[in-house]
Design brief:
By secondary structure, the protein is an alpha/beta fold. It has a single domain, classed as 3-Layer(aba) Sandwich (Rossmann fold), CATH 3.40.50. 49% of the residues lie in helices and 15% in strands. It contains 13 helices and 8 strands. Strands 4-3-8-7-5-6 form a 6-stranded parallel beta sheet, sandwiched between helices. A two-stranded antiparallel ribbon has the order 1-2. Strand 5, helix 6 and strand 6 form a beta-alpha-beta unit. The protein is globular and about 50 Å long. The two termini are 15 Å apart. The structure holds uridine-5'-diphosphate. Uridine-5'-diphosphate binds next to helix 9.
Length: 239
């Protein structure tokens, strides 16, 4: 897989199906895989933070979440043409797990959020096996590692916000028998139904950011990072 690079941050060019296929063969080979969502804000932070840069670049798949990465790829003649969002990637993996009878563990968010997300996912995918869950506020991480291993989960979704969730994954993955790790931010809030995604119309046009801006104009300051990011990419050397 030929990864693209923006301000030193790697981005995987694979789409959902290609990632699932690749993960299947890595699972067969007994390899662990990590998925991290990349957006312009994270790239900007990582370009000035060696630890975050290392964390992102050493993940197996850096998925192009955020329309800004697509624009950057276009500007630099790259091949990334569609977004791979964290929440959609998680849902594809959930579908894959339910079809292949692979067990799943959910870790993160508030107790009532993670239990509701679990319930709703099991309702949507009746053959899905969520063999365990934990809220994102437990203190005893050794006990948690044991609990996850005892659940025999092969896929673990960690929803504690970035980069906390990715740091947790990196620290604990050597002790875990899990094969696929994804940091999913606020996705349990979405699956539980507490947070609504933008209507399909906005999503299709890549305008989720506009929908969020209309709903919460305070986001403008954060969103000003996008033009700044694109300018930096445009004037950076290489791709
Ligand atoms: N969260 C958690 N443990 C913590 C802090 C946060 O489980 O110690 C959860 C929080 O309840 C929420 C999720 O992390 O469900 C995502 O948080 P946030 O919106 O800050 O992350 P983002 O999606 O912006 O990366």
């Amino acid at each position: 897989m030929n990864k693209e690079q923006y301000l030193g941050v790697k981005v995987s060019p694979l789409n959902y199906e290609e990632i699932i296929d690749d993960i299947k063969s890595r699972m067969q080979a007994g390899e662990q895989s990590t998925i991290i969502a990349v957006n312009p804000e994270k790239v900007m932070t990582a370009s000035q933070n060696a630890e975050l840069l290392d964390l992102i670049n050493n993940s197996t798949y850096q998925i192009p979440d955020g329309v800004g990465i697509l624009l950057a790829s276009k500007l630099k003649g790259g091949n990334i043409r569609s977004r791979v969002t964290g929440v959609d990637m998680m849902e594809r993996l959930i579908r894959f797990a339910s079809e292949e009878g692979r067990k799943v563990f959910l870790y993160g968010a508030k107790e009532e959020v993670v239990t509701e997300a679990k319930r709703k996912l099991e309702e949507t995918y009746p053959s899905l096996m969520i063999s365990g869950y934990e809220n994102g506020y437990v203190k005893d991480h050794d006990a948690l590692v044991e609990k996850i291993n005892a659940s025999e989960a092969e896929l673990l979704f960690v929803a504690m916000g970035s980069p906390r969730q990715e740091l947790w994954i990196r620290e604990h993955m050597p002790k875990l028998n899990v094969k696929v790790f994804q940091g999913v931010g606020g996705s349990f809030d979405v699956f539980s139904g507490r947070v609504k995604r933008a209507p399909a119309f906005f999503q299709k046009l890549g305008l989720e950011w506009l929908y969020r801006l209309i709903k919460d104009p305070k986001r403008l300051k954060r969103q000003m990072n996008l033009p700044r990011f694109l300018l930096k990419v445009l004037f950076s050397k290489g791709s």
